[in-house]
Amino acid sequence: MESERAALAVFFRAAQFAVVGANSDRTRWGNKVLRWYQEHNLPVTPVHPRETRIEGLVAVRELKSVLDQAATPHDARTAVSVITPPSVSLALLREYASDPRIVAMWLQPGAADASVVEWLRKQPADVQDRIIWSGPCVLVQGVQLARANGRM
């Protein structure tokens, strides 16, 4: 999909990354995605409503905290990986998909369902161009995409 290609092209140009749905269970995808960012030395913040530390990092309760803690508008340019149930993903999209501090949001496999897709398809092109929702998983194609976009 053309809009997803646009989002993938800018995703790894972010100043920082956030993983919404990160958790401390190393067998779960939220933890695996968080560790992928750490293993590739990318500046990442875990977002979880209850956990305070995950994989040695301070976790924040909501995405807004990641965006607000940046020192400058340039530093706030955030790419977000989403590993949440679709109902949570939809609420997150409704709140943040148009936030100019977010360069792109990547809904990892399982984070979108028919209601998320329906909502996305109704959004203007400038919002759709910032969302990756049916594409690859960062764990599978992240290195290739990051290299292609000058991040590694």
Note the topology.
Blueprint: H1 2-11, E1 16-20, H2 29-39, E2 44-47, E3 53-54, E4 57-58, H3 63-68, E5 78-82, H4 86-96, E6 102-107, H5 114-121, H6 125-128, E7 131-132, H7 138-148
Parallel strand pairs: 1-2, 1-5, 5-6, 6-7
Antiparallel strand pairs: 3-4
Protein name: CoA-binding domain-containing protein
Domain CoA-binding: 16-127
Pfam families: CoA_binding_2
Characteristic terms for this protein:
single chain; about 150 residues; alpha/beta; Rossmann fold; 5-stranded parallel beta sheet; two-stranded antiparallel sheet; about 15% strand; globular; CoA-bd; NAD(P)-bd_dom_sf; CoA-binding domain-containing protein
Overview of the structural elements:
This protein has 152 residues and is an alpha/beta fold. The protein has one domain: Rossmann fold, CATH 3.40.50. It contains 7 helices and 7 strands. The strands form 2 sheets. A 5-stranded parallel beta sheet has the order 2-1-5-6-7, with helices on both faces. The chain has a two-stranded antiparallel ribbon with strand order 3-4. The longest helix has 11 residues, at 29-39. The radius of gyration is 14 Å and the shape is globular.
